[in-house]
Structure formats: C-alpha cells, structure tokens
Amino acid sequence: MEVKSLEKELAANAYPGRGIVIGRSKDGAHAVTAYFIMGRSENSRNRIFVRDGEGIRTQAYDPSKLTDPSLVIYAPVRVLGSDTIVTNGDQTDTICELMGRQQTFEQALRTREYEPDAPNYTPRISGILHIANGSYDYAMSILKSSDGNPDACNRYTFAYENPLAGEGRFIHTYIGDGNPLPSFEGEPVRVAIDGDIDSFANGIWTNLNEENKVSLFVRYIDIATGTYETRIINKHQ
Predict the structure, then answer these.
(1) 163-174 pLDDT per residue, tens
(2) pLDDT tens digits, residue range 17-30?
(3) Do the beta carbons of residue 129 and residue 31 sit within 8 Å?
(4) Which residues in the chain belong to E strands, given as ranges?
(5) Which helix (H) or strand (E) holds 92?
(6) pTM over 0.70
(7) Residue 171 contacts residue 144 (beta carbons within 8 Å)
(8) Between 20 and 30 A from 84 (CA), which of 25, 96, 197, 202?
(9) SS3 of 158, please?
C-alpha cells in the first residue's frame, strides 16, 4: 500500500467528517495520534474540545445554540492505564468500561454499532494505542451499516504491531460529501507522519476544509517514558 500525504488526503476531501490518525513519529520515539471533527449543521459546528483529565471531551461553544447533544457531546479521548483510546463517539466510555472488566478492545465494540442518524448511519470509528515496557502497538476499528442498509452492521478491526517510524494510518467517517453521506471504505489509509507535534498539527488543521472544520486534538506520547504532549485547536477559540 502506497504511503500517502495526509495533508493531500485532507485537502482533496471537503468533508471527511470525523477522523482518527495513529502512527509513529519519524524519529521513532513517539506514538502519535490525532482526532478531528467537522460539521455541516449549526449543532455540529457549535463545539470545542476541552481537556478532561488525561483525555478530552466535546463541549458546546454556545450552550444556548445546542439543540441535540446525543451524538455531538462525548469524550473522544480517554486514558486507561497504558492505553490511550480515541473514538468518534460515546463508545470511548464503552471501551474503557468493558476493558476495565478484562474484555478486549474488539469485544467491547461488539456491544455497539453505527450511529442511529438515518439516512447517514455514520460509522463509529475507534482506535487504541498500547504502550508498555518500551513497546508500542495500536489497533483501529470501524462499525458501519452494510452499504447504507441498517439491517446489517459490518465490523472491521485492523491491528498494527511494532509500527514503522514515520508512518501511520488514517480512518475517517465519510469518503466525501453527499446526501446521504457515503461511509468510509477499505483499510485505513497509510500516511506519512513527519515533523514535531506543532508542525504535524498545523499540517492537519490548515488542510481541513475551512468552512467545515471544527476542532483538532493531537498527542505525541514518548514510548520510552509514557509522558506526552497535547495540542488542541478549536475554530471557536
């Protein structure tokens, strides 16, 4: 699979929706993850990321304009021991709860399916970074309707052991704009990861569609020590 430019992938898609990137820095020293949200409706655009313990949560920028919090207010990032969990919905909490009961990432997601937002049936995308004793691996998941048919839920998990330096994977909810919105297809895109946390975050933010982008979270985790740096960018500052 070709290693693609993340910036070009973003610039070529006016509406990838919500997206997760996970990989390893070019120097090999850091586990890297990013999560962004976009919006077409006023309710979706009326959000910011705020820190919540070691993770983040979404919050209404203007509470008076919040109409339906069910699919827009959630904790996208949580930390459970040596694991960092990143998702596009409240399945973050499901994963944390069930992994705390000794279930696996994949088993936890068996209890969930795509979002109930007909006719889009937005996929639930999730990722987990596991760092322990100087080793690093990660997995990504997508739960989606069967080509827009809500009678079936298709479940895919992709696991990456000892990820290569300077590379990552990118999964997002939609392959482009439309009505209904067409769901992501195939394996997460193999993308290059270069630069420090600030240049990486800037490369993502500047290439997201200006009208539709809402918020971005980026974290670099030192694989040797587990310490991390975080950046949050909100369109509504």
Answers:
(1) 999 999 999 999
(2) 999 999 999 999 99
(3) yes
(4) 19-24, 30-38, 47-52, 55-60, 77-80, 83-87, 124-132, 135-146, 149-161, 167-172, 189-192, 213-222, 228-234
(5) helix 91-99
(6) yes
(7) no
(8) 202
(9) strand
pLDDT band at 159 (very low <50, low <70, confident <90, very high): very high
Q: Check if the beta carbon of residue 1 is closer than 8 Å to that of residue 190.
A: yes
201-217 in b/e burial notation, b at 16+ Cβ within 10 A? bbbbbebbeeebbbbbb
3-class DSSP assignment, residue 9: helix
Rounded to the nearest angstrom, the gap between the alpha carbon of residue 12 and the centroid of all alpha carbons in its chain is 19
Residues composing the chain: 237
Both tokens of 185, joined, read 């297809």
Structural domains of the chain, ranges and CATH numbers in brackets: 6-234 (3.60.20.20)
